[in-house]
Each structure stands twice: as C-alpha cells, then as structure tokens.
From TrEMBL, chain A:
Lineage summary: Bacteria, Bacillati, Actinomycetota, Actinomycetes, Micromonosporales
Ranges for domain Cysteine-rich: 3-83, 134-218
A Pfam family reported for this protein in Swiss-Prot or TrEMBL: CCG
Sorted UniProt keywords: Signal
Top-level taxon in the UniProt lineage: Bacteria
UniProt KW Signal keyword: yes
Signal peptide feature range: 1-19
Protein name: (Fe-S)-binding protein
From TrEMBL, chain B:
Annotated coiled-coil segments of the chain: none
Name of the protein this chain belongs to: LutB/LldF family L-lactate oxidation iron-sulfur protein
Pfam families: Fer4_8, LUD_dom, LutB_C
Cross-referenced PROSITE patterns: 4FE4S_FER_1 (PS00198)
Amino acid sequence: MRIALFASCLADTMFPAAAKATVLLLERLGHEVVFPPEQTCCGQMHVNTGYQDQALPLVRRYVRTFEPCDVVVAPSGSCVGSIRHQHAMVARQAGDEGLATAAEAVAERTFELSELLIDVLKVEDVGAYYPHRVTYHPTCHSLRVLRVGDRPQRLLRQVRGLDLVELPAAEQCCGFGGTFSVKNADTSTAMLADKMRHVIDTGAEVCTAGDASCLMHIGGGLSRSGAGVRTVHLAEILASTEASS
Amino acid sequence: MSTFLGMPVHAPRGVGHLRGDEPFPAAARTALANPQLRSNLRHATTTIRGKSGRVIAELPDWQELRSAGSALKTYTMANMPRLLEQLEEKVTAAGGVVHWAADAEEANRIVTGLIQETGERRAIKIKSMATQEIGLNEALEEAGIEAVETDLAELIVQLGRDKPSHILVPAIHRNRAEIREIFLREMPGVDPALTDDPAELAGAARRYLRETFLSTKVAVSGANFGVAETGTLAVVESEGNGRMCLTLPETLITVMGIEKVVPAWQDLEVFLQLLPRASTGERMNPYTSMWTGVTPGDGPQNFHLVLLDNGRTAVLADEVGRAALHCIRCSACLNVCPVYERTGGHAYGSVYPGPIGAVLSPQLTGIADNASLPYASSLCGACFDACPVKIDIPSILVHLRNQAPHPRTEKAAMAAAAYTMDRPRLYQRAQRAAKLAELLGRKGRALPPPLNGWSASRDLPEVPDESFRDWWRGR
C-alpha cells in the first residue's frame, strides 16, 4: 500500500526518530511511504489556545496536501484527533463549507499509527525485537478522542523480548495539554509528578506512548529528576529488530 | 421587570459568587502548595470515583441513559420559554406563587422581601447551588435575617466561615480532624469531649440542627428539577435534612435556575437513574422529595418559586456553549478531573468549580470576567466521558478560548507561528535556526518568560542535528 506520512511539526523538528521509525517500520512491512513536503502543522496548538482564525490556513494546507492521498498516517494521537474532530469545525466557523466537507473526507483517511497497523493493514505482530522492560502511557487524545483502546498494547505484546508492565492510573493525564503546560505550569507540574511516580513504580526502563508531545513532557520531568527511565515513541519500539538493536 | 430588547445580559458584578479575586493560575498556586488540601482531595476524589465507577458498571444501558438525558436537555433548551410558562401556570394552579428574577440582585430582593413579610428573623436552608451563586446568605444577613445551612457539609463551611469547594461535597477540602476543630470552635452547645469519629461529628450536627428545624418557620431551597407538565418541584439529597426543611416550616421559598425545568413527569425516570450513580455513587439517592404547590393541612402552607436567570439566557444564546446548561449538578466531572483533584474548588473562584465551572462561570459572567477559566484544563477529556448527560466540555472549552481576550505577546507569537507554519521553506529555515540557536546559546535549562514555567520543572529536549524532512531529502 502507498501510505502518506504526516510527520507532525513536533516530530519533524524535535523528535525525527519517531517519524523515521514510522517510515522504516512501514517499509519493512512491504509498503511504500511518501512524504509530501508541503506539509507543516495540523494547527492543533492554535485551535486549542483559542486562535481558530490563524489555524484556518493550516487546516487548508493539511487538506490540500493530503487530499490526493489514499491513506495518511501520523505518529501522533493528538494530531490525528485534531484532524478528525477540529478541522471541519474550524472550516465551518470560518464559513467555508467546501473546505469543511473536504476536511471530513481527508480526516476519514487519516490514521494514528496503531489504528493504521491494526485496522487498515491488519497486522499485530510487526516482527519487532526490543529486549526491555516497558510501560505504556495511553495519552488522553488516543484514548478518549480517537478511542484506540488496547491497540498499542496488542502491538507491544507481540514484540519479542519486550516485558510490558502495566502503568498504575494509566488513564490520568500527564499534565501536558499543549499551552496548558505553560499557562498553568504549576498545576501541570503537579500532574506530572504523579505520572512520574507511577512510571517509576513500575520499574520499567522505558516509558512509551503514541504521542511525542506527551513523551516530551514526561521525558523532560524524568530527565530532570534523574530517575533513569527513558521515553521512547511507540513507532521506535515497533521499528526495532534484532538487526537494528 | 422591564422589557428588554437585544442580547441577553450577563450575571451582574458585585453580587454573588461567580467571580474569583485572582486568575486561576495564581489561585491554583496557593492551593497546590497546601499538602493537607492535596491529600484530602486525592483521598476524596479517588474514593468517589471508585464508588461511582462500580455502580455505573452495573447498568447495561448506561450509555443509552446518557443519550436519553442529553436528548431531554436539548429538547428543554429548545423549548425553554414555553416550558417555563407551563411550569408557572401549573405551580400557580396548585396554590404556589411564581416570581421571575432577571438576576442575582432581583432574586435576593424577592427572597428577602418574602421572608420579611412573614416577620421571621431566621430561615433554614437546604443545600442549593443557585442560592450560593447569588450570594443569598450575605443578602439576608444584611437585612438582619439569619440563614442557617442544614446540609452537613454546608454547615461545616458556614461555621468555618469558609467557601464551598465542590458542587456536591462543599467541604471536600476538609478532613474530619479539621471538622472537629470547627465544631468545637463554632457550634453553639457542642460537647467539648467531641472526637473526630464521623458518627460523633454527625451526631453533634444533628443535635444542633434538630432544635433549629423545630423552631424555624421559613425555609429556602433550590431545586434539582421543576416539572412543567405538573408543576412539581424535586429535591434529591442524602441526609434527610432537606426533607425536614421542605415539610416542617410554614413558608417555603424555592430558588430555581430556569434551566432546571424538565418537560414531563416521566422524564424524571431518566434523571433519577443518572444523577445518584454519577454523583455519590449510589444506586438510588436516599431522599427524593417532591411537592406540587400547597397541600392544605400538610407541609408548608405558603410556597414561592423564584425562577432565576442571572446570565442563563445569555448562555442559551450561544449555540455551542448552551450545552453547559444541560448540567444536572452531579459533579462527576470534578471527581475525574486531574486539574480539580490537585487544585481543589476554591482556585476556580466561582461556586461552580471544576470542568463544568470552567465552561459555565465564564458564560454566566461574560468571558472577560473569567478569562482564565477556559484554560484551566489540559483538555484530557475525562469530564466528557464521565458526564451523565454527555456535555462535551472539552469542545466548549476550546470554543470559549476562541472568544477569550488574549495576552498581546501570546497573540504575536501565535501569529508568527501560524505565518511560519503556512510557508514550508520558511518553516524549514526556522527548524535549522533552532539548532543553530541552541549551539550558539545556552544548552540550557531555562526558557525566557512566559515559557519559563515549563523549564522550571522539566528538561527541554535537545534539538536534533537533522530534522525529519532534511533526513528524508537526503535518503
């Protein structure tokens, strides 16, 4: 299958390993990956901070860029959540019904990585090898906006060598919330403190998730505290093989 | 009431409790630094969450019930004027008197006047959000009328000269040791040997309140539901003190927000299943009191219903925001909210705290007076899942953020970001410049304001040597 990658601005700029891993994983599974270079950002930060008029050109850019593609994948639950639940709303708010309809159509073909693997490509065992103790943080938008359910865990359970340990209070937010972590930094830090405590309690070496933004937040806290736990994107674990490790 | 043509008005300033003294982030900072508060809240919200989750899981049709509740509320909002007039007609026919209050001041004036007409100097109160919202106790006090809260938690708050911090459990921020101290200090005639055993504390409150119930001739209540079809008012509660207030006095005055009207008697079937399981985690609430006007020889012989607007019509005028009026005050959204669990209710500055408060208060007051509240959420969505009438709180938060006044520096930064993001070449140059800035500048831990809140507690990721798109191009 020919799959278009929407890298997301955060992974493209700060966490290229997650986007690269998505490419290498899908190619290993026998698919062709394309990267339309006109893509930038889905506009989620602008929408969620109260700047819908400024998000409009980014929504239009996303829709125009990916309109010709049959299937789009993004290694981010929250970007896909925004594309699916906000793009048409932003277009309608601006009175652009044509864009709204087009946005809905592209959103239907846009998938988060675990959705793409399980629902579209019908694969649970991606042939990965990752000999580490790992805990999975479900991320709010994957869980409650996209409803990916246990798809990521099903993928992780098939990874050879991987010891998956359950994260206590996993469904609680890590406190990132985009600009929330800046505007309400103290509350965000209090939420992060509990998330870190739960991660550390699992005894895992690696905390994984399907969103680079939440991992940046949790990883930033873990790094500061010197806890000795790394954050690694789900795509990187699924892309690992005996040869690459 | 004067005729008003044009857009409906917001709740007035200077009366009631819908506005805080400081923005949410500042108020939250104070709360977060209080370990006793943090521990009390963690314990209480975790307990209620567990209990509610267990009894909700027993119902195979919970999702259908939620949809039914949501549909009934949507219908009610669309037919509000007709339903309110029907309610007025039925209550009047049953011997009650209906008053219309445009705002908090008018409602306080009506209730004060009605009590003064009885010649009484004291009123007993049933726990009510509407009377907290309008600051009725303060208005009565000014008129020389003592208002005694009879709900145990409200009594704790009143005796402690405190403010409620939760819709359902207003003293959730207090533990039993603190409650004992308040009772010993403030409760007339309390036994000095009182311990912090919950049964003993409840016993002390019971002794104190029983005297008051038997000697007070006026009661003030709120209402959970007002049935338009029959003119029946309903109050649900756990302690039975509400029923004392509804049956013993000679005069009963009920203050009801206009959105509490429901079309038909049968609709209570849905809400009386949803409310207790979502709020207290009970299968059925212990006391459900319903009354229709006045029954000769039984219960209060004078009944007044005050219908309160206080900004609600303005909320109703907003297509997206009006869903906040669907709220049945169960507080499930507070109990699951990771922000509320850590800051408590006082940080929100309004009697309506938590996620529902963050969407309701700014709409009642106008967004400018509560501009920080729509941002008091990480948009994690736990509230939407927990809401028994399916209010999409995260979407309303985003909608209100779009209306909120924005700080000038933020506006400039957002405009610059959007400009760059809409130009892939410029965006690519900015990516490379970020790496360069890092190499030249501090490899640092601290960001400049207003971003320094992030780097105070978290390390920044290192900018990678190569962006993804540079790697892709070089493949």
